[in-house]
Amino acid sequence: MDRDTSCQLFALSFDASRPENLARFWAGLLGWETVDDPQDGITLLPGDDTGFRLRFLPSQEQKAGQNRMHFDLTSASAEDQRRTVDRALELGGQHIDIGQFPEEKHVVLADPEGNEFCVIEPGNNFLADCGFIGALACDGSQEVGYFWSKALGWPLVWDQDQETAIRSPHGGPKITWGGPPLAPRTGRDRVRFDLAPTAQGDLSTEVDRLLSLGAKRVDTGQDGPGGVTMTDPDGNEFSVLTPR
């Protein structure tokens, strides 16, 4: 981590009408351990080098429109890709059409609450050295890729034609942004980052640092003992959690 960075990507949080069901799907697909979450949700702990956990938090809001971020899962072979797709369908996933072309070799699916993800074909060079979760693919600008590189202290591993990608120095998935045009916003982000100040940081100092990088603090009615809600330069919501 960069010496000027005082936070880490603690979790990727999903709003869910049935957190237990959604956690069961992803635990079954990824093979991760399930633990209780302090905000009455469910947390999955990674069993690989992913570096951040998944949180499933209760919400009454229904999903509207396509998420701005989704997982790209990797495959070692065509048979391996089929096994992943079959397993996802057995767990309650479904095939969806988001406008992909028939000749494309990746498979587009959704989890039981409609959150999109892709199972990438074998031989993808960009994800060749990544694990099962190859990437968290995001709809976003070049500016937001630069923001998150500085916010997390993760180096840029791709910066071309307004497309950017960063990756932790410790490995794990890449986080990518596809450049313009950006999809229109459809309400509160159902999938978002949770940041945690490191041991040498504190909440107010970290919030000030992120503001200096281009984030904004917003009043969503969600602030409280759990932390502070902010947005990045593209307007994507994220939380800075209170140190525990």
UniProtKB/TrEMBL annotation:
SUPFAM superfamilies from the UniProt entry: Glyoxalase/Bleomycin resistance protein/Dihydroxybiphenyl dioxygenase
Alphabetical list of InterPro entries matching this protein: Glyas_Bleomycin-R_OHBP_Dase (IPR029068), Glyoxalase_6 (IPR041581), VOC_core (IPR037523)
Region of interest (Disordered), residue spans: 168-187, 215-244
Family matches, as PROSITE patterns: VOC
VOC domain segment(s): 129-243
PANTHER family per record: CONSERVED PROTEIN, HYPOTHETICAL FUSION PROTEIN
Protein name: VOC family protein
Record organism: Streptomyces tauricus
